[in-house]
Amino acid sequence: MFDVAIVGLGPAGRALASRCAAAGLTVLALDPQPEAPWNQTLALWADQVPPWLRQQACGIDVLAHRFHDPVLYSPERAVLTREYAVLDTEGLRVALPIGDGVTVERSAVDDAGLVALTERAHRVVDCRGAGGPRNRGPLQTAYGIVVESSAAAPALGGESALLMDWRTDHDDDEVGPGFLYAIPLDRDRVLLEETCLAGMPAPTPADLASRLRSRLLRRGVAHATIDEPLAVEQVRIPLLPRLRPDASRPRVEAFGTAGGYGHAATGYSVAAMLESVPAAVVALGSGRPIPSPRSPLSTALHAVGLRVLLRADDATMHELFAAFGRLESRQQHWFLDAASPSYQVGAAMWNMWVRMPVRHKAGMMAALLRKEARDHAGPGGSA
Ligand SMILES: Cc1cc2nc3c(=O)[nH]c(=O)nc-3n(C[C@H](O)[C@H](O)[C@H](O)COP(=O)(O)OP(=O)(O)OC[C@H]3O[C@@H](n4cnc5c(N)ncnc54)[C@H](O)[C@@H]3O)c2cc1C
User: Which residue ranges form the domains of the chain, and what is each CATH number?
Assistant: First the structure.
């Protein structure tokens, strides 16, 4: 018997497997493609890198690039006074070594196989992610291009980075509310990404690409830059975890996006997951359940946020994020950090509410009460 079987070696599974082995547990790890690189651009706030993963502790700088004060436009300008960072995914893998303490098997495990693993390990942890195409719930979708910094300059308009640019300087109206995410990946390259924060159905990559194109052209980015980018990124993030039939089984638990570590209203998960690794390792080593990612009340508040994001019209959405931009910096952290306690999430949401004009409070209430999500499919049909 292994101490722990970890199914899935994405960021969550690998972090857990690596740290469990470092703590002396015997680990069986299963993934159909254990060495597959993580090609997605993973970002977090620099202060969210947990102490055990900082360079002083692990000897590796897991951040590829960091920069201060990204900006929000909704349409008024607000500076988020916090350092943002892009993870070096290869560096992160090196900082999470899979050594002798981990037996890796190259295989895909279905729900029944997960339960069957209890014959081979005392504890089984599902780290298979949020379910990919099988997850039929709300999605965050985005389409991005990577271009040279000099070519991206007109899109950034002198800002260091655009965390969320809700200005509507694009041609179409059909795709629904969306924003430009524009962040430097290193000194030479910038990611320009058109994002739908939450949709059900969510806009297709083609619709987002078309909006991105019109937005960038209007800002003066050259045709050739848009047509021949250095790389293209398509984002599809399920905002809620897939319901697992085995969820009530003792000894079968879930971690990472499979376990609800994602923030339902932002799609971010990596920072909360990394922060939770030490507690999960202690739990697995001591026979206790893996702690929940957050309190049920925080999860419920995030769900209220998601409900509004799926139903609000453009004007309400813009006013909501303008109110977010007016929050004190610490309250912005409280809302964005996926593991914040409920009193912090509640305080941040309440303060956004009180900072909204009465007209848009009515829009918020209408969005909350609306039965159906906004038809977000855009001209290309549903995603
Ligand atoms: C383009 C893009 C950009 C993103 N940017 C950010 C960001 O900036 N910040 C952030 O916090 N999050 C971001 N996300 C979300 C983030 O990638 C994911 O949240 C993160 O990868 C989740 O890690 P995970 O290990 O929980 O799941 P996954 O990364 O989905 O990993 C799941 C693993 O399980 C394996 N697996 C799947 N099925 C099986 C099976 N049946 N049997 C065995 N193994 C299986 C897979 O091969 C994979 O290795 C982004 C996502 C995308 C797509």
Answer: 1-34+98-135+240-293 (3.50.50.60), 296-369 (no CATH)
- Asked if residue 177 has its Cβ within 6 Å of ligand 1, the reply is no
| Burial class of residue 121 in the structure, from the number of CB atoms within 10 Å of its CB (0-12 exposed, 13-18 middle, 19+ buried) | buried
Alpha helices in 69-204 (DSSP H): 89-95, 111-116, 149-156
For residue 211, give the 3-state DSSP assignment.
helix
Show the tokens assigned to 145: 């291009």
Mean residue pLDDT across the chain: 94
Atom of ligand 1 nearest to the CA of 109: 42
pLDDT given for residue 246 in this prediction? 58
* Residue 339, SS3 per DSSP: coil
Q: Is the CB of 293 under 6 A from ligand 1?
A: no
pLDDT class of 381 with cuts at 50, 70, 90: very low
- Indicate the pTM of the whole model: 0.95
Structure tokens at 192: 């320009």
pLDDT at 380 over 60: no
Q: How far apart are CA 80 and CA 69, in angstroms?
A: 5
Say if strands 2-7 and 139-148 run parallel, antiparallel, or are unpaired: unpaired
187 Cβ neighbours under 8 A, 6+ residues apart: 65, 149
Residue of 19, 127, 145, 253 with the most ligand 1 atoms within 8 Å of its CB, for mutation:
127
